[in-house]
Design brief:
Blueprint: E1 11-15, E2 24-30, E3 33-40, E4 43-48, E5 63-65, E6 76-77, E7 83-85, H1 89-93, H2 97-102, E8 109-113, E9 116-120, H3 128-132, H4 134-146, E10 149-150, E11 161-165, E12 168-172, E13 178-182, E14 194-199
Antiparallel strand pairs: 1-9, 2-3, 2-5, 3-4, 6-7, 8-9, 10-14, 11-12, 12-13, 13-14
The structure holds FE2/S2 (inorganic) cluster (FES).
Length: 209
């Protein structure tokens, strides 16, 4: 079942391997809300990509590798969203532990379906599996686990199977190529649209039906 409000819906963001290394991040925007998923010391978490000091966007690029640190006054945030590095704190902010906790980043929802990573603005709501449905969730899990290698971009042909899930279109070739196209969520520009071409790990990989 799909809720009409974009803030209440899941959107595909990328692949788990995009976020596998410490400090790797991927961003998007849903309506007026910038979102970021980030690996912080091995933990992958999602927040509104908005600094709680003076509301600057923290990561301006669609993806990259760098600490969750605001470019304006240098506040950096831990995996709970709490500001932990505040330059000039003793003179300028004087924030103790409780004050910092009150200025934690707003959390967002993060979910995985196999190696596919989805985000949602709303913290509460149906799980990704509930929104997609059990059989589609299982199929996407199996496909994303089977097609593990990125390779040369291929244009989907008319005889390929197309599977739709949230903002994601999967184009599956009969000979074992999977093209993922994530449309930018409502309110996001085309920088947040992503296309990935995936191949099985080996020629012998058993592909799901
Ligand atoms: S606006 Fe982010 S640290 Fe000041």
């Amino acid at each position: 079942m799909q809720n009409e409000a974009p803030e209440s819906r899941w959107f595909h963001l990328g692949m788990a391997d995009d976020l596998a290394t410490p400090n790797a991040f991927v961003t998007t925007r849903v309506g007026a809300v910038p979102l970021v998923a980030q690996n912080i010391k091995g933990r992958v978490v999602a927040f509104r990509n908005v600094c709680t000091h003076r509301f600057a966007v923290i990561h301006g690029e669609p993806a990259g590798c760098g600490p969750l640190r605001c470019p304006y006054h240098g506040w950096s945030f831990d995996a709970d969203g709490v500001p932990v590095g505040l330059p000039f704190n003793p003179t300028d902010f004087q924030l103790e532990a409780e004050g910092r906790r009150r200025l934690a980043l707003h959390p967002a929802s993060l979910a995985r379906c196999g190696r596919l990573v989805f985000v949602r603005v709303a913290v509460d709501g149906p799980s990704l599996e509930e929104e997609l449905g059990t059989s589609l969730f299982a199929r996407l899990t199996a496909l994303s686990d089977a097609f593990t290698h990125r390779g040369d971009a291929v244009e989907p042909a008319e005889d390929w199977e197309t599977i739709g899930a949230a903002n994601l279109r999967l184009h599956l070739a009969p000979d074992g190529v999977l093209v993922l196209h994530s449309a930018a969520p409502p309110g996001a520009d085309r920088r947040f649209s992503r296309t990935i071409t995936l191949y099985p790990a080996t020629a012998d990989t058993e592909l799901p039906a």
